[in-house]
Sequence to fold (404 residues):
Amino acid sequence: MGGPKGGKGNWLIWTAHIITNMQEKISMKTVCPTHSISPKKLIHLIAAARPNFMKIAPVYHALRKADWATPLIVHTGQHYDLNMSEVFFQDLRLPEPDLHLGVGSGSHAEQTGQVMIAYEKVLIRSRPDLVVVVGDVNSTLAATLAAVKLGIKVAHLEAGLRSHDRTMPEEINRMVTDTLADILWTPSPDGDENLIREGVSQEKIHRVGNIMIDSLEMLRDKIESQTAFKELGLDQNDFVMVTLHRPANVDDPKILREHCELLRWVSERIPVVFPVHPRTRKKLEQNNLTSLLEEHPGIRLLEPLNYIRFMNLVFNCRFVITDSGGIQEETSHLGIPCLTLRPNTERPITITEGTNRLCRLEDLEKTVESVLSGTFQRRTIDLWDGQTAGRVVASIKSVLRVKG
Ligand code: UD1
Fold:
């Protein structure tokens, strides 16, 4: 198992800082464990992997303004590379994590088990009033399991999403997390409907909207004033952004090769910008496919980008080809066409009301032609308004029975 590494020298320094910091923050609770002197509510925000950071940040900033709350950021270490984690903390104006579990990569069971073991120790040492988990990564599930077994309340932000595809590890994480969590914050009506169909009681479900949009709107000015696309010599509205990292798309060498060939085909029509996820980079290298992309003049392979640079490229591209979940939402909000290389999505509202289209590999050429001839529409999605964190904080206040 790898702990923090690659640019994570800082995190080793953090460990000492974290312990001091945490002790200060939780001292009130330790002194008065029964809350008799009205301590602040201790709330853990679990951050683990790249897509989590944009979801944690708006909630953290909103809780910091609440005089009744002490939010602590717990980083499990699932993502540890500088450009998969730390740069997001900087862009999103997050402080260093209060606690870093340093778990790193591993098989599903290893990663989930390591987070459970490490986080349980933290929970026993200092019991929070609420654990907030976000999204659907292995750490989301692991932190939930550790907390509920100790009788600690868990709230899941981005609850109720279902792809109905159990071959996706995320679907398993979503289902188990939603079964166990006490509070389910959903982004859209389909989330509520899925949970009700699964027998979740209505009072646990609070529709709060889409938290990713809060981060995007919080940083809109910075994103718009960024010059990433110009620095790459690209023209506005005249390139396509690509992201690919799902095991189903990159782990099988034959499928990965087919993707590479299609990207070469796309790049003959419009320049392709492809920031490569570490999982994908590894698979390209293992299968000697990197050069197939790198040596093609229309394709720019980049390292993973920070949030603001990446979003600047999305804001200015003609369309996106992706298998990410969050990007389906961001493009829908922005009105940018998105071709999702998956057979299903847990975010169907991005298709019915946004700009997302599911696309099989064999249909990509046809769909790209249709995007280039411009036939995409979108509507404004209810509660995707940049105000979700406020609704989350109001919900926490009510669930924890905070007066005033
Ligand atoms: C994880 C999430 C996925 C999310 C994605 C976003 C699960 C099951 N999957 O997938 O839902 O969409 O994050 O990125 O939780 N690696 C590095 N450096 C890092 C992190 C990962 O090199 O900082 C490499 C390692 O080789 C690792 C591999 O990427 O084994 C996969 O990382 P992992 O966190 O297991 O899954 P992701 O594919 O990133």
